[in-house]
């Protein structure tokens, strides 16, 4: 009964976050939002003294487990950054395999020797959250660098060269998202 609230919260926050991501045509900030949601809550869970304060602990756990799930945003992000249909299928499958492996690893974070407050497990989750934030920022910077590199080459081309380049359908299928006229999504654009 007490878990219904966290499930409802996660559904609502996931839908709101996905809608907002589509509305603003932005992915990185929305994924990072989920990490910023959970990080202070995990830190607070570590700071609550052992024993007593069960409703405070329940409130934190409810907010943690109801965090905005950004899996749909990342799936869409991968799809829109992969022009070639074959590569899109491979990248989507690879991402889903990585998510499943992460679930297997995640199931081992809370250990019986760490019960009932799981201090060590929560420290591991904080570390994973920090790593995730760093990964999102590194991904953003990498995509930004690739976009700038493409734009420099594109701007050096004449209008005629750009038109010929855009009309080459064989190269379009072969090059996919590596094409100069394909813009990678990462932030407000």
In short, what is this structure?
The protein has helices spanning 4-24, 28-47, 54-65, 71-80, 85-106, 119-156, 159-167, 169-175. It has 189 residues and is an all-alpha fold.
Describe this structure in words.
The chain has one domain: Growth Hormone, Chain: A, CATH 1.20.1250.20. 12% of the residues are buried. The longest helix has 38 residues. The protein starts with a helix and ends in a 14-residue tail after the last helix. It is 74% helix and 0% strand. It contains eight helices and no strands. The chain is elongated and about 75 Å long. The protein is an all-alpha fold and 189 residues long.
Low-confidence stretches: none
Going by CATH, the homologous superfamily would be MFS general substrate transporter like domains
Secondary structure class reads: mainly alpha
Number of domains: 1
Helix share, percent:
over 70%
Q: What would you say the CATH architecture is?
A: Up-down Bundle
Instruction: Report the average pLDDT across residues.
Output: 90
β-strand percent reads under 5%
Rg, please?
21 Å
Shape: elongated
Q: H/E order of the elements? A: HHHHHHHH
CATH fold category name: Growth Hormone, Chain: A
Membrane topology: Multi-pass membrane protein
GO molecular function: transmembrane transporter activity
Subcellular location: Membrane
Organism: Monilinia fructigena
């Amino acid at each position: 009964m007490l878990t219904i609230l966290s499930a409802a919260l996660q559904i609502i926050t996931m839908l709101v976050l996905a809608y907002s991501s589509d509305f603003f045509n932005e992915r990185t900030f929305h994924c990072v939002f989920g990490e910023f949601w959970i990080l202070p809550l995990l830190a607070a869970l570590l700071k609550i003294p052992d024993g007593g304060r069960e409703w405070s602990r329940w409130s934190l756990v409810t907010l943690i487990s109801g965090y905005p799930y950004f899996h749909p945003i990342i799936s869409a992000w991968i799809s829109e950054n992969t022009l070639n249909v074959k590569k899109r299928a491979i990248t989507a499958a690879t991402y889903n395999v990585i998510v499943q492996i992460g679930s297997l690893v995640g199931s081992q974070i809370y250990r019986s020797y760490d019960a009932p407050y799981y201090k060590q497990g929560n420290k591991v989750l904080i570390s994973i959250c920090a790593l995730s934030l760093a990964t999102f920022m590194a991904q953003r910077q990498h995509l930004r660098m690739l976009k700038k590199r493409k734009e420099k080459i594109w701007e050096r081309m004449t209008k005629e060269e750009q038109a010929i380049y855009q009309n080459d359908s064989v190269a379009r299928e072969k090059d996919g998202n590596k094409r100069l006229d394909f813009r990678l999504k990462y932030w407000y654009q």
